[in-house]
Amino acid sequence: MKDLTKVILKPVITERSNELKQAHNKFVFEVHPKANKREIKLAIEKLFNVTVEDVTTSLQKGKPKTTQMRGGRFTGKRPDRKKAFVRLAKGQNIDIFDQV
Question: Which of 9, 22, 35, 68 has the most CB atoms at less than 10 Å from its CB?
């Protein structure tokens, strides 16, 4: 991926991500499935003007879902997701997580 603005899709704000932020200064983002760690690091550093120390990624497979409607039964699948756990340098912070 060459366009760094398309690497970061959205921040993930959950109880677990808040605990990671407070304990280890880690922030969680949903990223493009084909993005690698180097691209994620560059995108975070350029978008938020912070220093990234470490990036860990995880893939989450989409669950199969079935719904029963008047027209019959429909089977589908939720999309696969990729999350990035970004650890910042000591004293660094990203403001969008503090607003929630």
Answer: 35
Domain extent, residue 45, equals 4-65+75-92
Rounded to an integer, the average pLDDT of 78-99 is 88
Count of structural domains within the chain = 1
Under 8 Å CB-to-CB from 67, ≥6 apart: which residues? 73, 74, 76
Identify the CATH number of the domain in which residue 18 sits.
3.30.70.330
pLDDT digits (tens, 9 = 90+) for 57-77: 999 999 999 888 888 888 899
